[in-house]
């Protein structure tokens, strides 16, 4: 037990003397939480639209104005040649082309129906999809408006009007921040846990000090615990800091209890620390460790449901997310923050996290050798 | 005859097809200063790492402090000190903290550790520097601290891997005074070096060529045997036959 005390003392002294680690611990939550939710927004805004108006009628003009007044679209070009607009799309100046045919107004009034054409640059699929969806919705709205004007008694409108209203449970204003901030908290803990511990041990390998430890009677579990505990504490500090920042910047507080968050973080951190330790047993240099950790982080984040919902992934990818620790933690933190889920609600996830913690640490201890073969 | 603290018989280590240590056999007695010489790549460090329990042997027998290198490495580690080629104190800890840390993990009781480290600091003349980070000290001082730390827990044997590499002649002299003092206290010293004047200071010297021990005796006997005027000549004569370079 005394040995462990000496190891911990030494580790904490070194951490507090390392300005880079301290800066990382304090700056990472702040910068990530402020930057990512504000910059990486799901909503697509400022779609550049080209309007090919071959009608030049009051109605075509009104439709154009209506599109632009929503704030989603920005007029890139207003002309009457589809070919020319297509060229603008090719050059990247425009994303969507709306073609209003020559007899648009005439058809709309006399024949009770007109045709419009939307073409989108689908290089950025999300922008194209959402852009055409927005535009279609606005055009439908325009259509309804025009018709209501014609019908004298709207109450007896012959048009079947089905209006859908929706209510967003738990996140009534569909706030993007409320969704994103807890997810980033989860990623933060993951990074602190896996990166820092791995780099620290590999740095000792590089300096040769680990060999000096290996030639002493220090036991494997003592050495690993001596590394694990300090970074566990740092991880807990980092999530606390992250929660403070999310409250100050976004006024977001968990609906559920802090207790649940801390219990989950505590166990989850042990798991990611295990991953970090495991990485450190494979890597011989800090470069290798960084590349390893980076590779894991990419997969963790992309398959973790931070940006894209796991439910919409293909089946095989959904299976992969089942063995991806951050996927559970992101879900848990979001559930506690947004829905107010209790510990009991999340019990299955808790079981998985314990399994991860034991599994990864077991592998790490097994892989760590005081003597090379 | 004094107690035998290191005993090897046909100790061999292979890395794939390459035989780094080729069936070496020797014995070292308690309190002896045993010089382990050889050109770069001759297999000195590999042999030393096996004896310290850092590397598994491929075949042969080896016992250190009475414990087997195959099965009892953790017992060996309690009874040895080790100073590697790479400087291996913590640069971002102070002199006092380093001594305290390494003494602590060897299980020296707290009060004794405190006394011992203060005594050591004053003996090394580092009272002024005790609270400076080790990284800021000159190499010679670091090496002296490193050695003193390696023998703080009074091991039976201390392994020194090129302890005086890159150190000035005066510091080297002082370093050897420390080695003598340790040997006098009954600590066996197992040392590798490239300096042939240092070889003369050893009680017995073994010279490794291509993984095998080419000669082993007192410096005086070796000089007579090879009709050489000094160890330098003995070494050159043996090492010239080496097949493998660096």
TrEMBL record, chain A:
The chain crosses the membrane at residues 21-40, 176-202, 229-253, 259-279, 291-310, 346-365. Residues 136-371 form the ABC transmembrane type-2 domain. GO terms for molecular function: ABC-type transporter activity. GO terms for cellular component: plasma membrane. It is found in: Cell membrane. It is a multi-pass membrane protein. This is ABC transporter permease. It comes from Jiulongibacter sediminis.
